[in-house]
Amino acid sequence: MSFITCKDIAHMVLEEVTEQLAPSYCINDLRYQVFEYYCSIFDSVSEEMEGQSFGVDVDPADLSVRVILVCPMITVEDSNHMILELIMRCRSFAFEPTDDPEFLSASFFFPSLWVER
Hints:
This protein is of the alpha+beta class. The protein has helices spanning 6-21, 29-48, 82-89; strands spanning 25-27, 53-58, 65-71, 92-97, 104-110, 114-116. The chain has one domain. The chain has three helices and six strands. It is globular. The N and C termini lie far apart (40 Å).
């Protein structure tokens, strides 16, 4: 069984939203490349912290992108940890309990990847 990556989930969601926004908006290639880099960090963090699942959605009001990582715990032992780069790069973040008390939901909010045509 293959591992579903953050990039896999994001690609499906962003492709669908891009189709819905066309022809008024298009995805900015540079923003998308940077976001793909962030997805690779999410994949590494998920592997390290035994992540259970990813979620990606887009806020229709401002087209901001939210990435959700569900994992049993998040442990940061030094100031160079890769999750801190995500925290520094996102607009905001939140940690919330899930229905399962063994898991935590970490949400990271990024600016829109789309620009008007």
